[in-house]
Write a structure and sequence with these properties.
about 140 residues; alpha+beta; 3 helices; binds adenosine monophosphate
């Protein structure tokens, strides 16, 4: 997968625009989010361009996951001392994805009411057994 000329994260990876890099491995780079939700909010990004999680290649996914864990350890052992983390990847505009280059958010959590706050609005159209049937009906 080639890097895309109009992609901001590809430009960061190519060194064309600056970022606040924390660490990297063969497949991925980790840098601080420019508009952090909490102190230490970091993005882990594959060096090759993939639009989202589900289209990303396995090697890059492993590289991202491994680097994200290292980032979390680094933050945990630093003087930032968060009490937990939210790990998140948005896929598609409707799900909140703004940058169309797959990235994994590592968001330190300090207090219950700050940082990333998860809310649900249940809207169920099908029974769980119906969904199971849909998803497994082509299974060999
Ligand atoms: P998402 O909404 O999941 O696509 O998240 C995109 C994230 O990228 C947001 O949290 C932005 O603040 C962040 N972001 C956008 N441009 C930059 C940049 N140049 N450097 C660092 N973070 C960025």
């Amino acid at each position: 997968m080639k890097n895309k000329s109009n992609c901001i994260f590809c430009k960061i990876i190519a060194g064309e625009i600056p970022c606040k890099k924390i660490m990297e491995n063969k497949y991925a780079i980790a840098f601080l989010d420019i508009n952090p939700i909490s102190d230490g909010h970091t993005l882990v990004v594959p060096k090759k361009h993939y639009e989202n999680y589900s289209s990303c290649n396995d090697n890059e996914l492993k590289g991202v996951a491994s680097l994200a864990r290292q980032v979390a350890k680094l933050i945990k052992n630093s003087s930032l001392k968060p009490n937990g983390f939210n790990y998140l990847s948005n896929e598609g505009t409707i799900a909140g994805q703004e940058v169309m280059h797959y990235h994994f958010h590592v968001i330190p959590k300090y207090t219950k009411d700050d940082g990333f706050i998860l809310t649900y609005k249940n809207k169920i159209n099908k029974k769980v057994d119906e969904v199971l049937k849909i998803l497994t009906s082509n299974k060999k």
